[in-house]
Amino acid sequence: MKQDDLITLTIESQGVDGVGIGKCQGFTVFVPYALAGDQIVAKVDFVNRKKSVVFASLKEVQVPSQNRVEAPCPVFGKCGGCNLQNATYQSQLQFKAEKVKKNFAKLAGIDIPLPEIVASPLQFGYRNKIALPVSGKKGKVVLGMYKTGTHQVVSLPNNDCLLCQDWAKKVAVLCQNFFNESKIEPYNSKYNSGLVKHVVARFVDGQLLLTVVATKGGAIDYAPLKKQLDRNWAKWGLYENVNSLGNNVILSGKSNHVDGIEAIQSEMGAIKYFIHPDSFFQVNTQAKDLLYKKVKEFVQEFQTEVLLDCFSGVGLLTASLYDESYDTFAFEIEPSATQSADQMKIANNLVRLQNVCGDVLEQLPKVICKLKEKKTTAVVDPPRKGLSPQVIKMFSQNGANNVVYVSCDSATLARDVGLFVQDGYSISKICCFDLFPNTDHVESLVCLQRQTN
Questions:
Q1: CA dihedral angle for residue 98, residue 100, residue 106, residue 108, rounded to 10 degrees
Q2: CA dihedral 63, 67, 70, 76 (to 10 degrees)
Q3: d(CA 144, CA 131)
Q4: Which residues contact 132 (CB under 8 A, 6 or more apart)?
Q5: Residue 133 belongs to some domain of the structure
Q6: Distance between CA 404 and CA 309 in Å, rounded?
Q7: Which residues pair with 259 in a beta bridge?
Q8: What confidence score (pLDDT) does residue 423 get?
Q9: Based on the domain organization, do 320 and 370 belong to the same domain?
Q10: Number of Cα atoms under 13 Å in the Cβ half of residue 358
Q11: Relative to the CA of 377, which of 99, 403, 438, 451 has its CA 20 to 30 Å away?
Q12: 146 is in which domain, residue-wise?
């Protein structure tokens, strides 16, 4: 078998990244966008003879899997935004539950039952945020999505992404016209040149926050864009983020307010909250509400007397978990996020909440040492990289009775849960939430209880 050969095979399974896996001539073959049950023709892209592994591209589906559907997006398979849009939604949910189970077995050595997974209320049009790289040439600007594993921008037909609603298309069209009419040079990653790198937009409850990411501050006259924003939205805010770094980071440092509203103000139930351009906020609003509701159910089931919310960000999850029956401490290392959390505390009169700014490794032991006689529940919702071993050890050493772990990466979650189990915790509950339909990503929720001797 060699590069560019055409091979015929049956896809037997899918990896945790959604890639189809089959066997051919003694090799394990990985084929993106192929589904378990497909009989396909694929073109060999790369052969690793030492590992008997082949990476190939899907060329033809001869006999489709019973789970295969026609992907509605015309650039599916080119754009890197989705990789499961060609699968039935029920099979997507099954795949994600199995992915979590596989990661726990492989990375933690723990055999868990196939977890329950809660479907997203919307399978398309669910995203409240979009980040579009800017490419092309001066006067011929292109906004789109990166092709998987590259910096090549794939133009979205009619500037329309099916994971968002019409607001995103409108933003893309307005920005593209503005850049072209103003003769603004788009960024070129190869030469690290040009002025505009990304357009980032968030839309919640009729309010738009738009951030233009530029390599140099103060070089753009936004007057024409502001006029267009005014014509299309009653409440909008415009920010500029200066990022001259030649890496994959979209937003760098502080975003500077240009005009309009400074934050989206909305409500989740009885909780008033505020979203700034750099605020963490789940991209799927309706599914996020289901997730947060379940977290609170678990906290209450533990008969919590003190709640410790670690990596609390701007405090939306903290506020949703707040209850007058227990004290709440929220820990966040970023000062601006803590300021937003304090703003939310005042707006909602959360008198039994204390926001603590600082490294959780340093600040949490100072609090938890005073709570030895109370039932404490720690909620952790860390970045994708998960928790450090030092943080996990800190929980076990300081005696948090229960830990509720929220994660968008089941691999780092499984790794961390394995360490918790080694340190004397047991898994009491696991469930998953599909916050990212048509992709291989899944949000997971694990409850851990400290074992008493």
A1: -150
A2: -100
A3: 9
A4: 143, 144, 145, 172, 175, 198, 199, 200
A5: yes
A6: 9
A7: 238
A8: 92
A9: yes
A10: 12
A11: 99
A12: 129-268
CATH classification of the domain holding 13: 2.40.50.140
Please indicate, yes or no, whether residues 36 and 155 belong to a single structural domain of this protein. Answer: no
Question: Are 306 and 196 within one domain?
Answer: no
Q: What is the CATH number of the domain that holds 311?
A: 3.40.50.150
Taking only the tens of pLDDT, the chain with its 453 residues reads 899 999 999 999 999 999 999 999 999 999 999 999 999 999 999 999 999 999 999 999 999 999 999 999 999 999 888 999 999 999 999 999 999 999 999 999 999 999 999 999 999 999 999 999 999 999 999 999 988 878 888 888 888 999 999 999 999 999 999 999 999 999 988 888 999 999 999 999 999 999 999 999 999 999 999 999 999 999 999 999 999 887 778 998 889 999 999 999 999 888 999 999 988 889 999 999 999 999 999 999 999 999 999 999 889 999 999 999 999 999 999 888 898 899 999 999 999 999 999 999 899 888 887 777 889 999 999 999 999 999 999 888 877 899 999 999 999 999 999 999 999 999 999 999 999 999 999 999 999 999 875
- Which contiguous run of DSSP H or E holds residue 143? strand 140-146
User: By the 8 A CB rule, do 179 and 142 touch?
Assistant: no
- How far apart (Å, rounded) are the C-alpha atoms in residues 22 and 28? 6
405 Cβ contact partners less than 8 Å away, ≥ 6 residues apart: 380, 381, 413, 416, 417, 420, 445, 446, 447, 448
Which of these three, 268, 298, 326, is where a domain ends? Answer: 268
Distance CA 371, CA 357 (A): 19
CATH number, domain of 222, equals: 2.40.50.1070
Instruction: Tell me whether residue 418 is in a domain.
Output: yes
Q: Which amino acid is at 56?
A: A
d(Cα 241, Cα 277) in Å, to the nearest integer? 9
Strand partners for 188: 193
Does some domain include residue 225? yes
Q: Are 237 and 210 in contact (CB under 8 A)?
A: yes
- CA dihedral of residues 220, 221, 225, 226 (deg, nearest 10): 120
Residues 6+ apart with CB under 8 A from 15: 21, 30
Q: How many domains does the chain have?
A: 3
428 in the same domain as 286 = yes
Phi, psi of 421 (to 5 degrees): -65, -40
135 and 115 both lie in a single domain:
no
Same domain? 295 vs 320: yes
Burial class (CB in 10 A: 0-12, 13-18, 19+), 372: exposed
**170 and 253 belong to one structural domain:** yes
Q: Are residues 310 and 442 in the same domain?
A: yes
Residue 453 has a pLDDT of: 57
